[in-house]
Amino acid sequence: MKKIRAILLVIMICATTIIVASLQAYAQGEKSSNNQVLDSEVINGFESRKTALSSLRLDNINKATISQESKYVTQGKNCLHICPTDEPIEEGSYYRDSKIIFYPSNASFKGVEYFSIDIYNPTEKARTVIFAAEAMSKEYIVEPGANTLWLHLDRARLQYVYTNTLSEISLTIQGGDWKMGNLELYIDNFRCYYADTDFVPYTNDFSQDVWYDFNEECDLSWMLAHGTIKSVFSQPLFSINRDISYIKSGEGSLRVDFRNTIQGAQDTRYIRTSDNQLGNLNSYMEKGGEYYLSFPVYNAYDHEISLSVLIFSNYNDEVHGVSTVIPANSWTGDDFIVTLKGLDEAFSGSGLDVKSIAFYFDGMPDEGTVYVDSIGIYPIQ
Ligand SMILES: [Ca+2]
Ligand SMILES: [Ca+2]
């Protein structure tokens, strides 16, 4: 029995050593990929007010200063201290989201695989923040005390990173009720980590009849929130769904979570395809035009909702549209289509230069989910 205890003790000590070693590596800001420690570079260490602030833009942040408090510094001697909310404007009021935009200038972004940033929250309330680089963004809860946020760049999605044109990286702190108390954060050690792996550039094949089947994570790159977005924390959230209950074709569908603002107001219920990322409709007209556009949508709300699908021309006009009502927990009907000939008429024979297809949902003040299975063009049987 003693022997077993001794063995267990050795195992426990070994396990603890491994955990401590990993935590130390983590605390030192190292990031490994395939067990290799990646090279990293400090993008902003907030060492002097001049260097820290010359590469930043602060929106809605009343106070940003350089702090020397060693408790909060994780790199060099100084860090950035921000207080987006000094005092409430009036009882019951909310303060807005606060955004810090970094304009990186001292690092090449060729091959960047991760960004990281250390945030110390000296208050007792957890805060919600979004760390974003172009189309890649992630929501985090910043707990009281020390936090390190890691943003993984899906380089297949962000091919343009390789042209070094990553124009801004941002950290947005969610606004809230002033009763939550003062918002105060310390930020330091904003770093990028270079990749040691290759990636396969992603392209969408628009020569096929199904332009989007939402089978790949990369397909998320081609859909956007549309209309006036009230907050990044409540804009529509896109993800690839794998639950076959909400798939009509292929292996995935686009899941869209519609959300409300922290004050309970409805954020935009509109989404659309990226500009000029569709197949060539004129080529289908040349083949006789006996085709239709199809875009099955599932309503996962427990009540009926309305949907209008609008086709935008290159001149940004809503040229053509169709509307329907989708019952609770149902797909749009098979007749919810746009015929190519109908579209051609709407374009008055000037050529089918379609810029974007937009989905305008309506009748859902509450938060909920819809799924878009695919967007494609099919021959009329
Ligand atoms: Ca520093
Ligand atoms: Ca699909």
Note the main attributes of this structure.
Jelly Rolls, six-stranded antiparallel sheet, 4 helices, mainly beta, binds calcium ion, globular, five-stranded antiparallel sheet, 381 residues, 2 domains
Query: By CATH's scheme, which homologous superfamily of the largest domain applies?
Result: Galactose-binding lectin
Helix content: 10-25%
Give the total of domains.
2
**Structural class, judged by helices and strands?**
mainly beta
Q: Poorly predicted ranges (pLDDT <50, ≥5 residues)?
A: 6-29
Q: Count the E strands.
A: 29
Molecules bound to protein = calcium ion
**CA-CA gap between termini:** 77 Å
Radius of gyration: 25 Å
Note the overall shape.
globular
Q: Please tally the helical runs, counting DSSP H or I stretches of 4 or more residues.
A: 4
**Most strands sheet:** 6 strands, antiparallel
CATH class of the largest domain: Mainly Beta
